[in-house]
Specification:
The complex is a heterodimer of chains A (113) and B (113). With 113 residues, chain A is mainly beta. Helices cover 0% and strands 50% of the residues of chain A. Chain A contains no helices and eleven strands. In chain A, the strands form two sheets. In chain A, strands 2, 4, 5, 6, 9, 10 and 11 form a seven-stranded mixed sheet that branches. In chain A, strands 1-3-8-7 form a four-stranded antiparallel sheet, with no helix packed on it. By secondary structure, chain B is mainly beta. Chain B has strands spanning 3-5, 10-14, 19-21, 24-26, 33-38, 44-50, 56-58, 64-68, 73-78, 87-94, 101-103, 107-112. In chain B, strand 8 and strand 9 (73-78) form a beta hairpin. The chains are: A mainly beta (113), B mainly beta (113). At the A-B interface, strand 5, strand 9 and strand 10 of A face strand 6 of B.
Chain lengths: 113, 113
């Protein structure tokens, strides 16, 4: 079955470390998104990409970086510049053909230790 | 600017009772509207969407929503809730470009036995 796979499910980061969250989709979707979710704050957009080798900053991009070298993959790096990275991270994709339904991965919970 | 408001942070409903979750939006044109559901520690799943046409839309899991332009609302309803409906529900509106969605803060549904 097609879908989005996020890994790992749980991730622990030490102070000053960079960590990379994986997001892979086999839906042949063009657009991919990274969201951060904190309790009571809904979803906040970090980065998005509509085509390979192109991506745009969302509302809270500081301290994060992404790449889109393949259509299927959109990894997110949480850098040491992100001062409060503990959160639940969600990856999503959509076809961009007017269907507009997002498909979400099951998320990665990142904790700073 | 577009915005989405979900006035209720929490709602408690008895099992078997009816449910209505409120969503109000601010958008200049005809909006594309969505409801998603999130179980604890999971990604989001699309319940239903409205693009145009019939203002009452049916979704999965027995949910429906009604678009009311005059009230700028897109409320989610279910005639009889089940304990498995306990989750967080998010309303979203399409931003008008890049297939981006603007999200409400979510409503957590609690089911009383």
């Amino acid at each position: 079955d097609g879908g989005i796979t996020q890994s790992p499910k749980y991730l622990f980061r030490k102070e000053g470390q960079n960590v990379t969250l994986s997001c892979e989709q086999n839906l042949n979707h063009d657009a991919m998104y990274w969201y951060r979710q904190d309790p009571g704050q809904g979803l906040r957009l970090i980065y998005y990409s509509q085509i390979v080798n192109d991506f745009q900053k969302g509302d809270i991009a500081e301290g994060y970086s992404v790449s889109r070298e393949k259509k299927e993959s959109f990894p997110l790096t949480v850098t040491s510049a992100q001062k409060n990275p503990t959160a639940f991270y969600l990856c999503a994709s959509t076809t961009g053909d007017g269907n507009y339904g997002y498909t979400f991965g099951s998320g990665t919970r990142l904790t700073v230790v | 600017a577009q915005s989405v408001t979900q006035p209720d942070i929490h709602i408690t409903v008895s099992e078997g009772a009816s449910l209505e979750l409120r969503c109000n939006y601010s958008y200049g044109a005809t909006p594309y509207l969505f409801w998603y559901v999130q179980s604890p520690g999971q990604g989001l799943q699309l319940l239903l969407k409205y693009f145009s046409g019939d203002t009452l839309v049916q979704g999965i899991k027995g949910f429906e929503a009604e678009f009311k332009r005059s009230q700028s609302s897109f409320n989610l309803r279910k005639p009889s809730v089940h304990w498995s409906d306990a989750a967080e529900y998010f309303c979203a509106v399409e931003k008008g470009s890049n297939y981006q969605l603007i999200w409400g803060a979510g409503t957590k549904l609690i089911i009383k036995p």
